[in-house]
Write a structure and sequence with these properties.
Layout lengths: L9 H7 L5 H15 L10 H9 L3 H7 L11 H13 L1 H7 L6 H18 L11 E14 L2 E12 L3 E3 L6 H17 L5 H16 L3 E3 L5 H5 L3
Parallel strand pairs: 3-4
Antiparallel strand pairs: 1-2
Length: 229
């Protein structure tokens, strides 16, 4: 990437999109390819204006302000930009979809409160980080057929006792804070370990006890464009 801004271009913007956001990277590549063949005009998408704006913006100062909560600093605009974007682009859709940014202090409070309830009311000492399981009854398809259909039989299954579901995750503010809280609980439980050992047990915990319990869904496309930026 060219560090100077004077010759910043749409092609360079595409290169700057991290591989952790394949959706946005592929979309922009497709748009850029269509632009070169005359099938699509970047001017119609106002991308040319955005590129021109970035050429004349002190981006270093903006980046330095990301995530700084003191001295007048702002929270990362990538996380909450699309509420304001929708207000300008389609205010009715914003209302219908319930797109409202929850301030980080409120998110922190809610997640900590849930963690405390799990510990005190449900007796799970590790709170959101709990690895406890419970046995539930489930119906599964048997091998026995009646006519054209297989019959259903009752079975049991071991599932995590604490599971997290965010049905309208937006840019993932609550999921992010939940994972941070889980990590804090995990560190407290394993505070006797060295940093290297803590990293090892955490890396083992994540795929086995964290990711299988975290579920998040989002209908709108804007968050997908920014969530993994």
């Amino acid at each position: 990437m060219d560090e100077t801004q004077d010759d910043f271009s749409a092609a360079e913007a595409v290169e700057c999109i991290p591989n952790t956001n394949p959706f946005l990277k592929h979309l922009m590549k497709e748009c850029l390819g269509a632009e070169n063949t005359g099938k699509l005009s970047f001017d119609e998408l106002e991308i040319g204006n955005v590129v021109d704006l970035l050429k004349h913006t002190k981006t270093d100062a903006i980046i330095a302000d990301f995530n700084r909560q003191t001295g007048g600093g702002r929270e990362d605009p990538v996380i909450h930009f699309y509420e304001e974007f929708l207000t300008a682009y389609d205010k009715m859709q914003k209302v219908q979809r319930g797109v409202y940014y929850t301030p980080q202090p409120v998110v922190n409070f809610i997640v900590r409160a849930v963690d405390t309830i799990i510990k005190k009311d449900f007796g799970l000492d590790d709170g959101l980080a709990s690895t406890e399981t419970k046995t539930i009854k489930v119906m599964r398809q048997s091998k026995r057929r009646v006519g054209y259909y297989y019959t259903q039989v009752e079975d049991t299954e071991e599932v995590p006792a604490v599971q997290v579901l965010d049905p309208a995750t937006g840019t993932g503010t609550f999921i992010r804070q939940t994972i941070l809280q889980i990590y804090e609980n995990f560190k407290e439980k394993n505070k006797g370990l060295s940093p290297d050992d803590l990293k090892k047990v955490w890396n083992a915990y994540v795929p086995e006890h964290l990711l299988p319990r975290i579920n998040a869904f989002e209908l709108m496309m804007a968050p997908y464009a920014s969530l993994l930026h």
